[in-house]
């Protein structure tokens, strides 16, 4: 079972694995890194990278022959069923730093259930219902992130 989607914070990885996932997709989190392809764009004083989900329209058209006519491009678009998106994602620094944060979040999440490894996390984890206020309180709040 692979968790694909909904991974926005380090704790989301721990939750997905605790729920039984054997792997998680984190392309969106890595798309904003220094090493990922794409230009860094500054918008409203914040830095972003252009992210093309590999099943998105932009990525699919980029894979096609650049000499296609407009009519051929439209036919390709009509036949395509895009699954990814083209978007701006926050610039996150290096892959090394992002992975350090994700591993730290996973370790922290595992510590809540006293788990030393993922199998133990899946056995020991307990899920509790949170209100929207509880979710907001569990994240960074009352400060302005840099």
From TrEMBL:
GO MF assignments: IMP dehydrogenase activity
Group of enzyme by EC: oxidoreductase
Signal peptide: none
Domain IMP dehydrogenase/GMP reductase, chain residue ranges per copy: 1-141
Swiss-Prot/TrEMBL keywords: Oxidoreductase
Assigned EC number: 1.1.1.205
InterPro entries: Aldolase_TIM (IPR013785), IMP_DH (IPR005990), IMP_DH_GMPRt (IPR001093)
GO biological process: GTP biosynthetic process
SMART domains cross-referenced by the UniProt entry: IMPDH
Homology family: Belongs to the IMPDH/GMPR family.
Identification of the protein by name: IMP dehydrogenase
